[in-house]
């Protein structure tokens, strides 16, 4: 008999540019060993059932009505024998499931992976989040280092925090199309060094570092082109400033949001991946770059230094160090073909350690070895 879990996803829409699209593959693999009831707070029902025995969307724009519907379906899941709730990033579902588990028995595993303590929140929001972390049975995050940080900043017992990495479909990124033809398809210059930024365009993700880095790097070399993939609150200003600059206008292009199913093309067409984030948890884009064999120049934040190969650590730069980013980007782009081939091999070998099938086994074991008091199904 398979172990039953109720998996709660805050959003699902086909063609999303976010990491939520990876949940599909996880569930398809995990349902071979687990019986999964999937609840989606907002969005659409996926095509097929992903191996789940039941999928339910809440789908209400009214917060009160959505809360009522969510409570109903979580109670429904509990009364049908789903004792373990795995909640992905939703504070509302984590709290609701925790109350149900405390009254009727069960455990709540709450995934949260980032460095939220770096940013000031309102008093009520801060109290609310701290309360949620204490209320759930287990907090699940990306690495042991982050687990220690959550324990320290939110005063949570370390044994209450479990580590499970993100995962990557390595096969999708290891294909090597003709780079010249791919650049033509994507309307990228074929004779330039392509620097890819693929992330949310926001302060936290370092998007305000793109233009200064591009401007300073252009003063060193004129063979570069920045491909910016993503959208966010900084997008409009960045587009306007780049267009208003004579030096940047022809050296940068904003592609907007790209569905995750197509993102591998941009990695394959690039020479280096640039991630100057202020805050990260376990960034999936780093896994995507590694699986593509693309060298990474990134901020020393979150778990980045734990994820990448040891030999790549010289490419990690302190956040806000524009000159450090420019110097490192130039160093990476100046490497010879032998160095690049060696790096490509190391990056892909490291990425395979986070292959979906490998991480799914750890996901299943969360429920087997977490401890706590699982209820009767």
* Shape call: globular
Largest sheet: 7 strands, parallel
What radius of gyration results from the CA coordinates?
22 Å
Please give the share of residues in helix. Answer: 40-55%
Could you state the order of secondary-structure elements as H and E? EHEEHEHEHEHEHHEHEHEHEHEHEHHH
Strand segment count: 13
Mind telling me the CATH superfamily name of the largest domain? Glycogen Phosphorylase B
The CATH C-level class name of the largest domain: Alpha Beta
For the record, the CATH architecture of the largest domain stands as: 3-Layer(aba) Sandwich
Structural class, judged by helices and strands? alpha/beta
Give a quick summary of the entry:
The protein is an alpha/beta fold.
Tags for this entry?
single chain; about 375 residues; alpha/beta; Rossmann fold; six-stranded parallel β-sheet; 15 helices; 13 strands; globular
Provide an overview of this structure.
- The structure is a single chain.
- With 377 residues, the protein is an alpha/beta fold.
- It folds into two domains: 3-167 and 356-369, Glycogen Phosphorylase B (Rossmann fold, 3-Layer(aba) Sandwich); 171-352, Rossmann fold.
- It contains 15 helices and 13 strands.
- The protein has helices at residues 22-30, 63-79, 91-104, 123-135, 144-154, 170-174, 179-186, 210-218, 235-243, 263-268, 284-292, 304-307, 322-333, 337-352, 356-369, and strands at residues 3-12, 34-43, 54-57, 84-88, 107-111, 138-141, 161-163, 193-198, 224-229, 252-256, 272-275, 296-299, 316-317.
- The strands form two sheets. A seven-stranded parallel beta sheet has the order 3-2-1-4-5-6-7.
- Helix 9 (235-243) links the parallel strand 9 and strand 10.
- Helix 1 packs across helix 15 (356-369) and helix 2 (63-79) packs parallel to helix 3 (91-104).
- The chain is globular.
- 41% of the residues are buried.
């Amino acid at each position: 008999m398979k172990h039953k879990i109720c998996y709660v996803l805050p959003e699902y829409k086909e063609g999303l540019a976010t990491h939520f699209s990876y949940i599909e593959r996880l569930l398809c693999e995990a349902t071979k060993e687990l019986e999964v009831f999937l609840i989606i707070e907002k969005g659409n029902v996926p095509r097929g059932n992903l191996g789940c025995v039941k999928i339910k969307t809440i789908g209400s724009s009214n917060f009160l009505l959505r809360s009522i519907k969510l409570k109903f379906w979580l109670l429904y899941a509990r009364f049908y024998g789903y004792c373990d709730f795995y909640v992905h990033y939703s504070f509302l579902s984590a709290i609701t499931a925790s109350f149900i588990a405390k009254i009727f028995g069960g455990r709540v595993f709450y995934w949260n992976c980032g460095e939220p303590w770096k940013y000031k929140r309102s008093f009520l929001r801060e109290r609310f989040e701290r309360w949620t972390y204490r209320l759930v049975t287990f907090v699940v995050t990306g690495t042991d280092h982050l687990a220690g940080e959550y324990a320290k900043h939110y005063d949570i017992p370390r044994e209450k925090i479990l580590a499970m990495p993100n995962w990557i479909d390595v096969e999708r990124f290891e294909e090597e199309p003709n780079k010249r033809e791919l650049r033509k398809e994507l309307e990228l210059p074929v004779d330039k060094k392509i620097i890819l930024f693929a992330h949310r365009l926001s302060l936290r993700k370092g998007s305000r570092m793109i233009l200064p880095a591009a401007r300073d790097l252009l003063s060193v070399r004129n063979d570069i082109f920045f491909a910016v993939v993503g959208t966010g609150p900084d997008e409009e200003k960045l587009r306007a400033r780049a267009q208003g600059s004579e030096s940047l206008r022809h050296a940068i292009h904003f592609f907007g949001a790209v569905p995750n199913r197509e993102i591998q093309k941009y990695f394959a067409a690039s020479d280096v991946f640039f991630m100057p984030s202020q805050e990260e948890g376990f960034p999936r884009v780093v896994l995507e770059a590694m699986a593509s064999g693309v060298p990474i120049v990134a901020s020393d934040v979150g778990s980045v230094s734990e994820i990448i190969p040891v030999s790549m650590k010289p490419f990690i730069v302190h956040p806000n160090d524009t000159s450090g980013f420019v110097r490192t980007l130039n160093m990476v782009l100046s490497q010879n073909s032998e160095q690049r081939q060696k790096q490509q091999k190391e990056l892909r070998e490291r990425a395979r350690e986070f292959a979906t099938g490998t991480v799914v086994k750890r996901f299943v074991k969360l429920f087997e070895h977490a401890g706590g008091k699982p209820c009767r199904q």
